[in-house]
Amino acid sequence: MAEDEKSTTTRDDEALQAEVVGDDALATAQGDDLSVEEGASPTTLGATKYVHAAFFVVGITTAFISGRVLAGIWNALAAWPRAVHLIPQLLLYGEDERPSFTFVVGIVIGIAAVAQMFRKPSVRTWSDDVAAELSKVVWPSRETVTNGTIVVVVASALATVYVGLLDRLWSFVTLKIYGA
What we know:
Blueprint: H1 2-30, H2 48-79, H3 81-86, H4 98-119, H5 121-135, H6 142-178
Helix pairs in contact: 2-4, 2-5
């Protein structure tokens, strides 16, 4: 009876272990790795870090563009006499100092835009889907990249030599035909 109990326990342990491995494989296939946990290190973020980097780039781009647009508007208003008459504070700062202030406002606009985008459920769902698809990407090994690079460099060198020889040949032929 003790032997039956031991084999049942062993089978139960194996089944539990298979479920855990199966769940891990399913989670990995779906892109649900440890990245959603609080305090996950950047090395365990998986594909989610690329999605977050894209949001970061969107924020920086928005900040830069909005800062430049605001500086242009401020400069245009400062050059317009009617606007200066209505708002004399437009001339408090010189044209060189204005981008500093407008860039700070642009940063606030960029942060607000990214925060607003990230709060939308549809954008969050989309970004999670993108992360899941990125987790399915199989990146080439270092050896594959090295071999591919060598092939491209050798093929480029051979093509360069071939085109150079053809150029010399046709130069020689046209010189003989037309003379110079």
